[in-house]
Amino acid sequence: MKKRNSVAHFIPRTVTMQEATEAKGGLDLQGATSLLMAMMQASADTDGHNALMEQLASAMGYKLVRETPQPRQRSRSKKARAARYAQPKLSLVKTNGVAKPTPAEPIRSREDFNAIATYLHTQGRPYNRQRNYTLFICGVTLGLRVGDLLRLTVDDVWDCEHNCPRHRVIIINEKTGKRTNDLITPLAAGAITALIEEMRGRTMNVLKPGWPLFQSMRSPKGVPQPLDETQVWRILNQAAKECGIKEHISTHSLRKTYGYAANHAMTEAGLPAGQVMETLQNKFHHSSQSITMRYIGLSQEQIDATAMAVDTVLGAPPLATI
């Protein structure tokens, strides 16, 4: 095995002015250069010692120290490398045994939409009914994320000076930081008007523009607080179960229902599919139309329709006789 050479370092001591002068006077530049070259070219013994450099260092009051090179670290084991580059295991269950969440689905039929709206408006605690109904209507007709929906204030949707609903909701999207400008439809305007009147009835006709539009019943120190997303999820989930809707309905279903209904309406009106997807893509601030299609549930519908078309083309095979 070839032995590695040691690396030598000089550890200097303090040199007096007299020693420096004597060294300078006794050795000219050419002599110093020759001595330095001889030191550099001197070969070391098999054990790594260099006699010339050791004697010179000792005569000048220096100590020669050898440094053994550190051994090279071994690369990772095959098992470690395999674990590093291993593909994640695909499963419907998390590592802690809890099932992964099911993606929210849009409300696809007018019957289901009316059933949930009617339930929210007539069932539950009386002082929460108008709030829950307005939240549902605004979520579906404005197409906002639930976080942006819950950040709406009275002033965002109501003109306190003229005592009427505004024509548009103009806010900054919390997730993207982009400005959104959405029309308040007649259906949403009617629900908002009824909610504002109910709020005034509870507060002796007091209405502050900065109040949250969708308020929680828990108001510490009398300061109105907005609902949180967990509360909204419970409201919608319970309504869907009571109405017998099998699809997975959650807070994201409101925005997806907006996209699904808009696509259906514009397609029925005869608009080209590309133009419809472009409009919804701009509305949702998606990076591609395929993301928009998947978001509003069209991709899965097309896959299912394709499977049915294949089934139709192939036809039913003749039953085997026994």
Entry keywords:
322 residues; mainly alpha; two-stranded antiparallel sheet; 50% helix
General description of the model:
- It contains 14 helices and six strands.
- The strands form three sheets. The protein has a two-stranded antiparallel sheet. The protein has a two-stranded antiparallel sheet with strand order 3-4.
- Strand 3 and strand 4 form a beta hairpin.
- The termini are far apart.
- The protein has helices at 17-26, 29-41, 51-59, 78-84, 110-122, 126-142, 146-150, 154-157, 186-202, 229-242, 252-268, 273-284, 289-295, 298-314; strands at 7-11, 63-67, 158-159, 164-165, 168-172, 179-183.
- Helix content is 50%, strand content 7%.
- Mean pLDDT is 79; it is low at 6-17.
- The chain has 322 residues and is mainly α.
- The radius of gyration is 39 Å and the shape is elongated.
**Poorly predicted segments:** 6-17
Lateral arrangement of strands in the main beta sheet = 1-2
State the helicity in percent bands: 40-55%
Order of helices and strands: EHHHEHHHHHEEEEHHHHHH
Structural class determined from secondary elements: mainly alpha
* Head-to-tail CA distance between termini: 79 Å
Portion in beta strands: 5-15%
Q: Mean of residue pLDDT?
A: 79
**Shape from CA axes?**
elongated
Total of DSSP H or I helical runs spanning 4+ residues: 14
Largest sheet: 2 strands, antiparallel
Return Rg in Å. 39 Å
Number of strands: 6
